[in-house]
Amino acid sequence: MNEVPQLLGHEAQELQRAFDVFNQVSQALTLAYHGLQGRVESLTAELAVANGELRRQYEAKEALSERLSLLLNSLPAGVMVLDSAACVSAANPAACAMFGREIIGKNWPALAPTRLLATDTPGEWQVHSRRLAIVESPLDSAGGRILLIHDVTAAHDLKAELERNQRLVAMGEMAASLAHQLRTPLATALLYSANLGREDLADAARIRFAGKTTAQLQRLERLIQEVLLFARGESIGRETIRAEQLLSDAAQTVQPLFLEKSVAFRVSCQAGQVIVTGSRKALAGALVNLLENALQACAAGGQVILAATTCGRQLRIGVCDTGSGISPEVQERVFEPFFTTRGQGTGLGLAIALGVVRAHRGTIKVSSISGQGSEFVILLPIEAAAERAP
């Protein structure tokens, strides 16, 4: 009989313990719920802040996009976007005005040759009456590109006018000196031609006077040609010229002059197949001017070397002589128009050579040591003919 109350008491204790555990778990769940509810409220607030920031960023980007769109639409320069297939995916109004709205979706490398005409200036193109400069830049890693197209018509016209005015000013400043240079051979030719009319003149003397008259008239003709060439500037073409052709043209022209003066002349070309672009006649003429200048600096028995080598991406052409050299003071002025140290010189040969080389995007320099001769060096860009429309 005593076992029943003991069992009931044991079950009551177990039930009490279970109830206590349930209360503990319930309290833990209540605390976890409150904690979770607080976390949800915190995340909701953070999400609201994040959404607000994203909204502000979106609005800022929309405003920036609108401003960029307005800027592109108002730009006087043309802007074209090419995709990875080189097709025009977008173009601003200026570009559409230059090439037409139908360029959208067209392949630019195929379209460019039909719209762009190459000019004498590398990187500039003619479109109807406009002169355009086109700059290409990569746009993204997918291969897209962006073309910036500038209308340089007015700048080109101003540059040409400025160069013409500078030449005219230089000619005006030296008009008196040039008149004197023209008058001297003219007076000499008149004197010789007057002797030709003498009835008592022997045939041998008549032939001699005729030859001297012709020589003075040829000198007059050359003076006038050099003045005209300097006044109008040299028109630079887009011929492809091998270095060996260029040196050969110049050498054939001056070879008789060197033989007449008994000055040794040697040509060394180690860049025979190198290609430059421009005017073959103008470049050969510039070399002839340098070679004649070197010949005049040499006495009989001297030597002049015309040599061509490559220097990086440039063609180096050197004219070296064994003359008396050029003083530092004269070197500073040697390329000035009408500056000469010779009584019968025009002072235009080296100035014309400098203009031709600069027009071909090259440089020309002189180095000299007194008593040891001089060297004029021309540097021209190689493979300019490989340039293509963008």
UniProtKB/TrEMBL annotation:
InterPro entries: HATPase_C_sf, HATPase_dom, His_kinase_dom, HisK_dim/P_dom, HisK_dim/P_sf, PAS, PAS-like_dom_sf, Sig_transdc_His_kin-like_C. SUPFAM superfamilies: ATPase domain of HSP90 chaperone/DNA topoisomerase II/histidine kinase (SSF55874), Homodimeric domain of signal transducing histidine kinase (SSF47384), PYP-like sensor domain (PAS domain) (SSF55785). The keyword RNA-binding does not apply. It is an enzyme of class 2 (transferase). Its EC number is 2.7.13.3. SMART domains: HATPase_c, HisKA, PAS. Residues 177-384 form the Histidine kinase domain. One of its GO terms (molecular function) is phosphorelay sensor kinase activity. It holds the Pfam family HATPase_c. Keywords: Phosphoprotein. It catalyses: ATP + protein L-histidine = ADP + protein N-phospho-L-histidine. This is histidine kinase. It comes from Candidatus Accumulibacter affinis.
